[in-house]
Write a structure and sequence with these properties.
Helices cover 63% and strands 0% of the residues. By secondary structure, it is mainly alpha-helical. Bound molecules: magnesium ion.
Length: 366
């Protein structure tokens, strides 16, 4: 499908913080994506928890496989809608770069430790990673990504933080939207985690087929599978149900969003930014999706087995924070360049960058 007028256009990018010569073979969004894939923060996603702590089992999602699934879904939606697939892919691959070890439990614990020092938020941290913390290039710190990629990475942000962010923070003050590609990644993230958590939850034994049948969306898709196949095992059945759920969600979001585009007819990304959100589920699907989220929260994220991992993670992060804030000299030299002015942030950056395994090992010797 060809690019529509509302798609982001790399040849009209707002630009990079440090001007660079154009690549002769790649557009600016492709170049952003390639920089993310080559970054050290991206490689570390492989050893960071999505829901299950990394060492719980080798077949569960990690932050890396989650990010790849988000990018696959986002590219599909972007192509169907005539948006820029490369930008959607870039934002998807970068959206979780700022996550701490141990998933949300890790972020909550680090935020608690940082409460007197400006807090910690994984979304803002993802931007810090691409703007400052990656040190690979001779001419600048960070990855020097385009405005459009950075705008997409910063999904939400407090007004106070927005003022400190400059250009990419402005939309939170003006209450504007990001590009359609960024909006697509937000829904792709939800579609990916809800569905892969059903899959991981089932395979871990925390969720049973019967309990999943309580959810309307799952039930609807399971009925279709039961009608089509009479002699398949539960593993195959779950997979057939999950792929149908993903399909229905994507189809719904494309249909609803194209309807919104028909109403508003934006002729440029700038117009998209001034309009209400365009990429969205239908009201009926939103309700079903909400039901699935609640089900997962109740049956999986708050399951005693996951809650125990959460508690352990909290303790490890607190231990690491208390130690490093009192022993700054223990943080390797290469992490400290220019950052001793704000010791708490330096400690948060160091801990947030750790993989699960590294954090467990580091905490175990303290
Ligand atoms: Mg995510």
């Amino acid at each position: 499908m060809t690019l529509r007028p509302y798609a982001a256009d790399p040849s009209k990018t707002i630009g990079r913080q440090y001007p660079e010569e154009k690549s002769s073979t790649r557009n600016d969004f492709q170049r952003d994506r390639d920089r993310i894939i080559h970054s050290s923060a991206f490689r570390r996603l492989e050893y960071k928890t999505q829901v299950f702590v990394n060492h719980e089992g080798d077949m569960f999602r990690t932050r890396l496989t989650h990010s790849i699934e988000v990018s696959q879904i986002a590219r599909g939606i972007a192509r169907t809608m005539g948006c820029h697939e490369d930008l959607a892919e870039t934002i998807a691959l970068a959206h979780d770069l700022g996550h701490t070890p141990f998933g949300h439990a890790g972020q909550d614990a680090l935020n608690h430790c940082m409460k007197d020092y400006g807090g910690f938020e994984h979304n803002l941290q993802s931007l810090r990673v691409v703007d400052h913390l990656e040190r690979r290039y001779a001419s600048f710190d960070g990855l020097n990504l385009t405005f459009e990629s950075r705008e997409g990475i910063i999904k939400h942000c407090s007004l106070k933080n927005a003022k400190a962010l400059g250009g990419v923070g402005e939309r939170f003050i003006k209450k504007q939207q990001p590009s359609l590609e960024a909006q697509i990644v937000n829904v792709a993230d939800e579609i990916a985690y809800n569905n892969h958590d059903v899959d991981d939850g089932f395979r871990s034994g925390l969720l049973s087929f019967e309990s999943l049948m309580e959810n309307r969306l799952f039930h609807r898709c399971a009925d279709l599978v039961n009608k089509a196949y009479t002699n398949i095992n539960e593993d195959q059945k779950i997979n057939e149900v999950v792929r149908r759920m993903i399909h229905l969600l994507i189809e719904d979001v494309c249909y609803e969003s194209l309807k919104n585009l028909e109403i508003y007819q934006p002729q440029s990304v700038d117009e998209v930014r001034r309009l209400p959100p365009i990429i969205d589920f239908s009201a009926a699907m939103k309700e079903e999706q909400q039901g699935l989220k609640q089900f997962l929260r109740h049956s999986m994220y708050e399951h005693p087995h996951v809650a125990k991992m959460t508690k352990d993670a909290e303790m490890a992060i607190k231990k690491l924070f208390n130690y490093y804030i009192a022993n700054l000299e223990s943080i390797p030299e290469k992490f400290c360049i220019n950052r001793l002015a704000d010791p708490a942030r330096l400690v948060a950056d160091y801990i947030a960058g750790m993989t699960d395994r590294f954090a467990i090992q580091a905490a175990s010797v303290l």
